Amino acid sequence: MAFDPAEQRRIFGSFATGVTVVTTNSEPPTGLTANAVTSLSLDPPLVLVAIDKKAGSHQAIKDAGCFAMSILTSKQQSVSNKFATPGPKDFSDLDIKTAETGAPIIADSLGWVDCKLSEILPGGDHDIFIGEIVAGELNSGDPLLYFAGKYRDVAPLEE
Fold this sequence. Notes:
single chain; about 160 residues; alpha+beta; Pnp Oxidase, Chain A; three-stranded antiparallel sheet; globular
């Protein structure tokens, strides 16, 4: 008997994650909101992102051979919402920069990595894109969090 996908979504919805936007330098540039991301290796420096095979950015990242991952701040919920919807993406109101690969980077994000696509592995209805980090930067701010289907803020721990 297969495990219920709705139950899987409910269970893993209780796993708080950060929110990123993954972009590539296709023509026109495109991207998507992603929280199925992780740092994979320090030597070599690798990161992974799981992307639905039906997502518009899937083929664009595959074709471009690169992607940038911008980690959003708590003030960038509207950016997350913009990239979470299907269809063409409008970058005109964003402060964008590029690094080594030319993939768009959200300049005022909490941090970012610029990656050359290293490998693509199958993962059910998703593919796992592994990127070798060729540039990156950490900025200041609080992260945008996602938990139980809602955006959340970081609260200081009581001592």
